[in-house]
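hey so i finally got around to running the thing on that chain from the lab meeting. sorry it took forever, my laptop kept dying and i had to restart like 3 times. anyway pasting the input first so we r on the same page abt which one it is
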Amino acid sequence: MSLYASLWFAFTQVANISGTPEQSASVKYYDIQGHRGARGDAIENTIPAFARGLLNGVTTLEMDNGLTKDGVVVVWHDWDIKDTKCKDTKPAFPNDPDFPYVGKFVANLTLAQIKTLDCGSLRQDEFPMQLTTRGMKISTMEEVFDFVNCVDTKREVSFNVESKVNPRVGGITRNPADFVAAQHAAFVASGYPLSQIQYQSFDWRTLIEMHKVEPQLFLSALIKSNFLEPDGTKSPWHAGLDVRGFPGATLGEKIAYAAASINATILSPADTDHDSPVLDPTVPGYIPFTTKAMIDRAHELGLKVIPWTVNRLNVAQQLIDWKVDGIITDYGASVRALAKSAGLKVRPRFGANRVRQCVKKHIQLTSESLADVDALLVN
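ok and heres what got predicted. didnt touch it at all, straight out
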């Protein structure tokens, strides 16, 4: 055990960690989170995907954030604009030297440049049932909040927002301080109570920075097995911590202690170990990354546990049996049905007519693409 871990462990035996946000009184339902909205049903991180998530009855809309060259928070997963997800249409202005934009980093493009992209026409190979929305644009965080507020007039939906910061390679994303400043401003401007917003990242520096700015925000420590370093090695992903140096009889328990040490209120591990030879717990050889020991220790430390990305119901069932506090999934409707069958309280679905009206009000499309929206929103 490292000296840091030993000192922190001793401290937590006699004192509670300060700055823990109050639990929201409005949390009524089991936390089924629609990963990138509803990636199994619609193109990820787009307003149509969030619309599907609301129709699927998820409790929380999970999404990713990039930060543009001109400092605008956009809802996008990758460091760059991938040609498997987006197509160029036209330059933002004549003779733009940055055009074409596909292949460029989000951090090196302005919002005006990004808004020219068609990021709704290309179905992802690993999600063959995705419905596309031709001409769909990347949204800003503000635009997503406005759309959800249109549907959710009582403001009951929660959000889980991830900062996409790369701590290993400089220059391909904006830095943690820039992300935190811009995202916090977007959260406050949304009008949603901070108790309905989770802030997550694999780069734990952003969580530490956000806690300084807003200690009442729920912080979710993302982690997966292939981001862990060998014994005694400080990880750039984990704010320079040696995760394996924390107390605990198992790796999962050490991870729980490490997450608690940075004032995280949620631990969000991958469901399955990266090196697992099989993907289903009913098949011999399956290796979970989220373990019962991890969950139990995290709960003892006051952390919730919400694994990702759970796309097999056998995995979801095992995790529910182990008492996880929520599940992040690309298939919100199926996991919602499983949770309901297990006796868990799930959020009612929003009506299709209301969702459709708000999509058509807030979506940025030409008229020929509205047929795609109507097909997508069949409830």
